[in-house]
Design goal:
Blueprint (H helix, E strand, L loop, with lengths): L1 E8 L3 E2 L12 E7 L8 H9 L4 E6 L3 E3 L2 E3 L2 E8 L4 E8 L6 H12 L4 E8 L6 H12 L4 E6 L11 E3 L2 E3 L2 E8 L3 E8 L3 E13 L2 E5 L2 E2 H9 L15 E5 L5 E5 L1 E5 L4 E4 L8 E6 L2 H15 L7 E8 H7 L3 H11 L5 E7 L1 E5 L6 E4 L3 E8 L2
Parallel strand pairs: 3-4, 9-10, 23-24
Antiparallel strand pairs: 1-2, 1-7, 3-7, 5-6, 5-24, 8-13, 9-13, 10-25, 11-12, 14-27, 15-16, 15-22, 16-17, 16-21, 18-19, 18-22, 20-21, 23-27, 25-26
Length: 379
């Protein structure tokens, strides 16, 4: 396995004088870019033309990660040339959230194979129920296939997102890359760092990923109470107070949910993943030091101590960036310090992160986490 990473920005162009070699069916080109780099932009077209036989995959972002730095209005790219790992790609349309489960099943069915070890998935970040998407993938692939990735971002605008399908940015779609073979190793970690506060509240009315009532009261009104003057910035400012969703009876597993949209008329909030009716939830707020430590923990969990080259894909929630502000690069640095020495680190700020909660478990849709996936090949 050999990895080259580089970037593009509108002011200085490509950071390398020429694209590295790697135009082969065993090459994966990952590209994460600012929302304005949509279909027809010269930079993505140029990259795709340079690797006509490779699989090119990625998505739009709420900030691009390259090394230990965060950029806007750029492309972050890695060219990964596998030696022992075969690749396949599949995509499905997701024009609305109701199609999320079917899209997951479709992608997983197209990628099914005996030696399938992992799926990297990137999805439209708005017209999606991430929980249903991941559920659909695992219904077909089973729990032994590691599924990681994230939902595309659009800064703090929540208007339009895209994923790369057949070398072109496309809205309303999901793309999955299947990785096959016994020589592939995958490390993964997903951690938060938010503090729970306030009373537990019962979800008394919800439908999929749309929340209407907590304790019999309008959910949107409750959020506005906590946001105060910041309520004028909804839905983006709701990222300051994500929702902790308790799963299981032992209290060990907590998923975090953040808002994608609000409906003033219905007094409802649409989240990136399911909010099951009858479940218990609590509000959360930021603790800067714990957020940064959470990123370090994610890096440690994804560090499989490879002996050769590796690539690490860091996907962090846009809410973390908004909260951390000028300290956002500290969480990237913390994750990088916990990763294998010399790994090529790239990634993006997302509207949702996909990863197992722990080793050996099925993946979930997470929000407000730093999620890291490390890929390498055994000797």
């Amino acid at each position: 396995m050999h990895v080259d990473s580089f970037r593009y920005d509108s002011s200085s162009g490509w950071s390398v004088p020429a694209f590295p070699p790697g135009d082969a069916e065993s090459t994966l080109v990952l590209v994460f870019g600012a929302p304005r780099y949509a279909s027809g932009h010269a930079a993505i077209d140029e990259l795709t033309r340079a690797y006509p036989r490779a699989i090119v995959a990625g998505c739009s972002t709420a900030g691009e990660i390259h090394g230990t730095e965060i950029f806007d209005d750029s492309l972050s790219v890695a060219v990964i040339r596998f030696e022992k790992t075969a690749l396949r790609v599949a995509h499905a349309a997701v024009p609305h959230t109701a199609g999320s489960l079917a899209a997951g099943r479709s992608v997983a069915t197209a990628l099914a194979g005996e030696s399938l070890g992992a799926i990297l998935v990137f999805s439209d970040g708005i017209s999606i129920n991430g929980s249903d998407l991941v559920r659909g993938i695992h219904e077909v692939s089973g729990k032994d296939v590691v599924v990681t990735g994230g939902l595309a971002g659009d800064g703090s605008h929540f208007t339009r997102t895209w994923v790369v399908v057949s070398g072109r940015p496309v809205e309303g779609a999901v793309v999955g890359v299947g990785l096959y073979g016994s020589g592939l190793e995958v490390g993964h970690g997903s951690r938060g760092g938010w503090d729970i506060f306030g009373p537990e509240r019962r979800v008394t009315r919800a439908n999929g990923n749309v929340l209407y009532e907590l304790d019999g009261k309008p959910a949107l009104a409750l959020y506005k109470t906590y946001l105060g003057e910041r309520a004028n910035g909804l839905p983006a400012t709701a990222l300051l107070f994500p929702l902790a969703l308790l799963e299981g009876t032992d209290g060990r597993k907590t998923l975090v949910r953040t808002v994608l949209a609000v409906d003033e008329a219905a007094q409802s909030m649409t989240f990136a993943g399911d909010i099951p009716e009858g479940s218990l939830v609590q509000l959360m707020r930021a603790n800067f030091d714990r957020l940064i430590e959470g990123a370090a923990e994610a890096g440690r969990a994804a560090n499989g101590q490879p002996s050769g080259e590796s690539v690490s894909i860091a996907i962090s929630c846009v809410g973390r960036r908004l909260v951390l502000g000028e300290r956002a690069e500290e969480e990237v640095e913390a994750a990088a310090e916990s990763l294998p020495a010399g790994t090529h680190l790239l990634g993006f700020y997302s509207y949702g992160e996909i990863s197992p909660f722990a080793a050996g478990e099925r993946s979930d849709l997470h929000n407000q986490t730093m999620t890291v996936t490390t890929l390498w090949e055994t000797d």
